[in-house]
């Protein structure tokens, strides 16, 4: 069965060196989910080779034409270019650190080559938003990203009803992922005062 060529967007997660001039890059793609690609000669000495490795920095957003065969663990990339040019993430130390955290979280969560258009769109939007946000928003962005990401994997914190929220004794049970009136018989809980740090969508 010959490999078919497909156009897809991708978020670079990481790459490792392979032989003298090549790399194997891990990309979260819109069409195929988590994929690994072999790129030959990309680390070759010279101006051309040096410029191409920059496309595969972690968090880079790419438009790609890829060869895909579902029976192969390692496919190849025909063409690639940036789908979005960052203005700050690759040059600002703090934003680069937040982006690295987001990439690490995605890498830990993504295990199977299954597409999820909603998750891909969310992650792509978050990286683009991070690139242009101010410092105040950036400071809280890792928590926002982690909480929202949990939604796509089925363990997001459950909502809270208005009567529970009005209670002075309401707690968030971290172990169960719910807000509750009653006592929690373990130490994994947050007091009501912590609601100030909770995303509005969960109130």
TrEMBL record:
InterPro entries: ARFGAP/RecO, DNA_rep/recomb_RecO_N, NA-bd_OB-fold, RecO. It comes from the Bacteria. Keywords: DNA damage, DNA recombination, DNA repair. Residues 5-81 form the DNA replication/recombination mediator RecO N-terminal domain. Pfam families: RecO_C, RecO_N. PANTHER family: DNA REPAIR PROTEIN RECO. This is DNA repair protein RecO. It comes from Niabella ginsengisoli.
